[in-house]
Give the backbone structure.
Amino acid sequence: MRTVRAYLRSRGRLPASLMDRYVSVFSLLMLIAVAGQPLSGMFAGLAVPADPARMGAGVALLALTLAGFLAAARAAGPVLLPGADASWLLLSPLNRRHLLGRTARVLLGVAVVAGALLGIGLLAVLGAPDQHVWRVLGALVVGVSAAVGGMALAVLGQASQSWRFWLTGAVAVLLVLAVVAVTGRLRTVLAIAASAPLPAVTAAAAGAALLSGLLVRQAWTSLDRIPTRALMAASTRAGHVAGAAVSLDPGALTWIAEDNHWRARKLGSRRWPSLPAPFALAWQDWRRLGRRPGRLAAMAATAALPAVLAQAGGSPAALGVAVLAGALAVAAMSTSGTRRDADNPALSRLAGVGLRPALAARAALPALLSGTWAALALAGVTLTATAPWAGAGHSLAAGGLLAGGSAWWLFGPLAAPALAAGALRMARRDPIDHSMPVLDTPGGAIPTGPLFWAATGPDLALLGTLPAAAALASAPADLTSFLVAQGVASVLVLAGYLWRARAGGGKAR
């Protein structure tokens, strides 16, 4: 062991020189000088009382953000090692805690940054009517404590099954808090918290910091008790993600997640229904979605997010982006069969179904999902705008978008064909072409390959949903012409995409 430690110490990082410290301090001072003015202006703009009508929706968004952070930390591991260390050092008799210490410090830094953003969001929700500096510090301490404590809870959940139960409970409590907050039942409590005296703010921040510190200490002592199998699995996932990031192929991440989900499951066999050839080929997407009821439940739950955004005071433009982007994301979740056909066209030709009939049959599921999701989202927005807890701060009520009555939900099914066309185009696009030119701008070099890759699919969906986007932005009193235009545009976009679809090179296709 002495020989191994001496070898690792000789091959490790050299001690920091005086020049290294100078560069670090200089970079820190430059960062403060550049970011100081925007940050001070942002904090000065928050020194106003918050709108009570928007507090509930703001707290709901913060709770959902923290729940998503905890879920992402649990899915990532969160403790992991590089591939070489996981293969050679993890199974050695080295001190496990010292070996994982660097990863723990990285996780702490990530949690601190996320917590600072969470604290800024909390300050924007509750406001700072007086004692501005102390309330800013209190909000930052609470946000950082929540994020750091949540990360420590995720580390403990990786080491113990009982702690994993507490992590799941924390996520469930945050989701319940979001639901209760958005209904307006916490308005009195939030008003009291917004105007709480300085001693109460100090006590809350101190309690949050103390609890977070206890969790961090417990997580640090549990590093040497994390099972090797869990560390190896987390390191393997991290290696796949790093490989996809280096090659700038985000599509590989979805394949990794899809394959990991189905690899550990035993599926029963059922007789294939008697359907026409194109629909029989597309039935695999329906079966795959039916075997994941959790994904369907998550899709239905996210349909309430545009309503929460509207209640929090989001602009009509932001609301339109949320509805259309969310519907396109839902449609893209049901195009695995199309992606496999595009990646292996020789195998798809063996089915004996033409490309255009197959795409038309596969467009049915994403159209149904996206149209239903958009209809639920728009219906939820119109319902919450007239709910008792919406108040005068609701963005739709203030913007006059309710003049069209309850017909807004019709944009969902009418925009579904265009959204399905965009999802199919996303599923059949090529990997990123890194040979494309680089644009030299004053802000730096911008590679056009990733830009074109990211725009392939959303461009077609945006073209087909322009009437709906224009209606959400202008809030007309009569929606008839916009609804008719949306139906015609959606059908034309889907028909044009199917007509121009071709196999072989150029999957954008």
About this structure: The first strand starts at residue 438 and ends at 441.
